[in-house]
What we know:
This protein is of the alpha+beta class and 193 residues long.
Amino acid sequence: MQQFNKLIEFRQAVYDHALTRARDAQFELVDALLLSAPIHTFPELSLCPAFRRQWPSAYAAIEDGRQDRAWLERYLVQHLPTHGLLVFPLDGTSWPHTAARTMPDRQYVHSASDTGLGSPVAVGHPYSVLAWAPERNTSWAPALSIRRVPSQKTDVEVGVDQVKQLCRDRQAEMQQVLHLIVADGKYGNHHFL
């Protein structure tokens, strides 16, 4: 029961502080994403029983909804353990948007999925992900910070900002517990170090 109460408190804090506009629609849209089988179109989310609003509210959640990312990142970091070795994977990923011609700041990105063009390169947005790996020998790593990499920056520059923010948020804990940042070879340079 205590874990269930923690989940309720977590959800309420996210609702109260992280969602700043169109809260109800955003909150139900996230629940619909979590509770739905794989969806093929965005309107399918409005059919999920967790989304109790009419279907235009799904669009309103995206168009009008706003979030306080800085608050959410700090809040997630507060829930990290204060003992033992903490491992934080840092890597880049991409989200292809091949058909979204009017979406701003699209770039050529590597795509692990089939682009339909016979090439691993697609047009979309790159993202930098800083996560926490709570257990060894598992791929589960909840994200602490996900930031889009604008065309004026590199993955490394955005990753540096994410690590600096983690260090600011965990300054006291870093004096007591080893925090290990792990990343692939593109971060092994003087810019990151």
